[in-house]
Fold this sequence. Notes:
By secondary structure, the chain is mainly α.
Amino acid sequence: MVASLVAKGALSAARSSVSMQTARAFSTSMSAKKDFVQEIYLRELKAYKAPAKAADAHVGQVRDFHAPKQPQAPAVPSSSDLSGELDAYAKAEPDHAEKQTSSGAEVTESNEGVREFLEAAKAPYQEEAHH
């Protein structure tokens, strides 16, 4: 009888130790462990207070805003002024007309060179025989 009691006790102890080991293996996890560095960091973040700024700290850093002056409307010319300007424009001769009359001889010489080039370009192409 005593032997059977001891055997039952040993068997129950063995079962409980096996179940305790498996229970421990499942109950331990990374979230259960504490990260002391993270706790210290969060504590310091919560305790931080930004230094107070002076009320006139912006002086010298920011310019005062001044609205620009409103532009004035341009003066509208009268109809007599416009007609006078148009008459003066119509009477004026273009600038390039004077240049053509003074350099007429040069223009004909350059035209002859162009004509010679065009005639040479129109001529049929003659291949040289390769030996």
